Amino acid sequence: MVTCLGDMFFPEVGVSVTRLLRRLGVTVEFPQGQTCCGQPMFNSGYHAGAARVAARTVELFRDAEHVVVPSGSCAYMVRHEYPALLRDTPARAEAERLAGRTYELSQFLVRVLGKTRFKASVTGRVTYHDSCHLLRGLRESEAPRTLLRNLDGAELVELPGGDECCGFGGSFSVRLPEVSTQILDKKLRNIEATGAACVVACDSGCLMQMGGGLGRRRSKVRPLHLAELLDGDER
Amino acid sequence: MSDTDLSVPFRQRAGSALGDKHLQEALTIATTKFIGLRREAFGEFPEGERLRDMAREIKEATLQHLDRYVDQLIDSVERLGGHVHYATTPEEARRVVLDIAARTGARLAVKSKSMASEEIHLNEALEAAGVIPIETDLGEYIIQLAHERPSHIIAPAIHKTKGQVADLFAKELGRQVAADPEELTRIARVELRQKFLDADLGITGANFAVADSGTVVLVTNEGNGRMVTSLPRVHVAVMGVEKVVPSMTDLMVFLQILAKSATGQKLSVYTTLVRGPRRAGELEGPDEFHLVLLDNGRIRQIAGPLREALYCLRCGACLNVCPVYRQIGGHAYGYTYPGPIGILLTAMLEGPGSVKDLAHASSLCGACADACPVRIDIPRMLVELRREVDEARIASWTERLAYRLMETILASPTLYRWSKPLARLLQRPFARDGRIRSVPLAFGEWTRTRDLPAVARQTFQERWPELQNPTATPGSSTATGEPCDRSRLAPESGHPRPKPDSRHPLQ
Ligand code: SF4
Question: Where residue A156 sits, what CATH number does that domain have?
């Protein structure tokens, strides 16, 4: 599942995921007609609209054995919000089935495939930002770290305050842009202090926020999706 | 007392807070300290997680039979010779206290920290009735001198630096005062000592009230709660009705996690248990004891969407970890209760219309729910509130239109597909090297401080046909430029395809 932000702004992430999974022997399919998981509407309170989009998504993935999402918040949405959102609709059973088969990318690699060793596409120090929905929603901090610690070619340095929000929060970032930016500034100061060349995250939203701030500062630090980092030469 | 001006839009109130250097300094120091202390306290306390679950269960079970426990509490307090008053509205609660003050001829009231008394604006009412209220908690004392309101549930003067407090004291006393917390505390103590002795009325809140024993519990650190409850002739405790707990055993569960969540202490310095007025043969205690149970919209929420917010122990942990609170402080929220839980309580007390903007003052990062000792799912209820605001059509028509448009596009793969070339066309004047530095309309809110990635020359969907053939693996050619200096990418080769593990380890 490659959802809106990833599709439109970060297509290279989807390409890396595809390549990575194929290399591990997974048959990758990409059901046509995907748009968005519905989270932007859901989080803003527009639940009828979110349910309409969710019901479509559920249908699209009916035949997939596992559904891999390179975005913690979209994976959280599908796993934890879909069943309740579609509770009173005909899509209910299918939504529950989908929730049980959906994985954020790092979780799929580590916990389903049991693959933890990859070759880094960059060299040097990288630091990791815990996306809120992956960390506190899906309760996952270990899978991405396992992958990063075992990386061949790059070294993980822990980010102080790595578990704190980057200030994205979807519509929050444009409803309260000043607050959002000040939260972001703190995050970026912490990132720059690590001396890392890249900040890695598992969520398009965080990457858009942190990347937007880093770009504006003309910082040397690059935002990088985990998939892109793992997509180095084969071992 | 200066109230936040609610005619100023929330975004602007928040903006002023962001620009306040003193506030920023004070908030950063205090919240960082609180976060560390809390983390340490639970780190050294392996039973913590289980106790949090238990506390939550007790709260839930109590709410299910709240009427029964309230009746039991009333019986118990009356048996001890105390009086219980049930107040449906803030006016009723104020009236009860003013009547007691009038009947007992009170002129001076000492108070220990109480958010419930803030909620009903008791101080102004007392002043208007000719009773002088004196706050005796150091933080409350400071903000009373400054004619302000608390900006944090447990640390009311958290928004002030020690330098500002010293200036405030200097002005009050007409002499130089060092910006030294110990010295400042000593001054406040001296100032307050005589007030305790002179006061006719002692007013407190209550952290808990135990139904089966009639015990009212105050958790404090300064010992002022003890003086307020024992020296004046009359003691009035004002408490939200949901704070009743069934038994002393239940109370112990809460006491073990409350101070840890609030200040990182194992226990607070003072835990004051009050059981009715002074009895024959006792040396200390008031002649009269009154407990005011405040409803003010709480009971209605037992069956409402904000039910879980009634579990709240008012520990303040969710404020300390909230990225928004940490940037804007408490006053910008504009109501008695700030921070994430404050938004829910404001909706409870003032109705959902009052939080039209506040409901969006959260990135939904979940740090609050994680820190909450009773695991209140605050983000979920914020989303619920946003939904209510949507369904009641309180949000602006432009916003509602934008979301309907979003729904229409996202529910139609065809429209979604065509929105991309359209976006590329529209972004052309603004995009350079795959990013947009400035753009009009709603996105302008983004680009004022952040670059916006441009819609890729080829989106993932548009690239899929090319990717579909696994042998024709694309190289590192991406339309938007590769982040970091990547090493060359290996061409795809035929691999055996192990079947992915079909167990679901996350279930
Ligand atoms: S919501 Fe939870 S964390 Fe926040 S004040 Fe209440 S009890 Fe404490």
Answer: 3.40.50
